[in-house]
Each structure stands twice: as structure tokens, then as C-alpha cells.
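Final report, section 2: Outcomes. Of the targets proposed, ABC transporter ATP-binding protein is the one most frequently requested by collaborating groups, and we therefore present its record in full.
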Amino acid sequence: MTDAIILSARDLTKEFKGFFAVDGVDLNVRQGTIHALIGPNGAGKTTCFNLLTKFLSPTRGTITYKGTDITALSPADIARMGLVRSFQISAVFPNLTALENVRIALQRQRGDSYDFWRSERVLGGFDARAAELLGEVGLSEFAGVHAGELSYGRKRALEIATTLALDPEMLLLDEPMAGMSHEDVDRISALIKRVAANRTVLMVEHNLSVVSSLSDTITVLARGRVLAEGDYATVSKDPDVVEAYIGA
Ligand code: ADP
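The predicted structure is given below as C-alpha cells.
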């Protein structure tokens, strides 16, 4: 972990017909950390996520990634710079195996071409890397299983593997634990820690306790604004945060 800021937002604002879904948000994500953006329903998390990943344009404010102003760039541009959101490529293809899903993501990343399909040597290279990525997300033993047959938690892990195929330096995850059992939450938490060993992770999550053991920094949003920021011990005791969650 360093003190270098990899991603920052200044005065990030999104207005929908007079309603400010995100309202003057400042955010600093330090390189090599796991940073969680949390808040009750309607806090503006998804809008913020879509602004940071350029799926929405801000009404006001700037976003800087590795010292470059990315406010006007497209999602594809920033993905090429190493800032990748989960599920950017596609969801998982259920009729293909786990390995084939990751291989396709790798082929897309490399700019799939006729030659790539023809060359056994190149395909073999993709398979080796795909197997490596499956190992990274703990799915080695499921390489030959159709994605549609995987449990929900393992499907999410596979989606993370397809995202890693884009070789991100920073990963943005949208509610990676949504709809998961306790066991899956533990598994995905361990996976995110592993993935973050040599990358930066920003994740949006509804549930404060789910991110407690995982995050270096937590930013709490409520009504489009930053309510509190700090580690779990700090924000979980903040009276404004407690009230926002109880009042939500
Ligand atoms: P969260 O992800 O924290 O639940 P959202 O970012 O989805 O919050 O939404 C924040 C607020 O902005 C909500 O009140 C929502 O109704 C509103 N909102 C989100 N998207 C739009 C939109 N496209 N048009 C109008 N209002 C929107």
C-alpha cells in the first residue's frame, strides 16, 4: 500500500431533471487498497459507480485516474488505461465452460482475429492464461464445467476472472456480494483480497458489515453526498452513518 492516489473525483455531481443523485462528491482511492463505497438504498452508489466508470457523464466535476483527467473519456478508453469495471465485457455465457468463458475474454482483450482462431499455438496460449486466471479466482477444478451449472457465488467468481482477463490495474466491482449466502460472501471476500494483492479495488456495496473485514477505506454516501470516510471502526461508530442506515 502506498499513499499515491490512483483514482480521484472532485465535486462529482449528477443531476436528473432537478434531482441530484450524486451531489458534490470528493473521493480519493489510494493505490493498492480496497476501497468500499457504501450507503443505504438511494444513496447514489450506482450513479457514482456509473460516473466513475464513464457509463454516465457527470453534470459537474472531474475524475482523475493516474494523473490523467478521464472525465471526457469513454469506458473503452479508460479500460485500455487499466481501469476496468466488473461485467464490462458481458455476463457469463452459460453454455460455455468456465475455461472457454475466460478464453473468450482474453481473445477479445487481444483483439480477436481470424488468425487467432486458426492458430492452435495461440489458442493454447490463451488456454494456459485462462487456466491461470481460473486458479486466481479459485475455480481450477471447475474449468470444464458449463458456466450455467456453476453456483451463483462461483458464477460471480467467473465473472471476476473474465474481468481480470482485461489485465486491470484497478478494478471496480458493483455489489460483488449481492444475493449471496454467508459462505459465498466469505469466499468472494477471500477472492477480492487475493485479487487486490497486486491491484487496486473499488467496490460498491450496500451492506456495511460485509465490507468490514475487507476494506482499507470506506466512504459512506447518503442522499448523494459523502457522509463519512475512514476505516470500518471509524465509520461504523459515526452517529450520522448509524442514523442514515436506521433511517433508510
Ligand atoms: P443506490 O445505488 O445507492 O441505491 P442510485 O444511484 O441507484 O442509488 O440512485 C440514487 C437516486 O437517484 C435515487 O433516488 C434514484 O431514484 C435516482 N436516480 C438514479 N438514476 C436515475 C435516473 N436515470 N433518473 C432519475 N433518477 C435517478
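Residues 16, 19, 21, 39, 41-47 surround adenosine-5'-diphosphate (CB under 6 Å).
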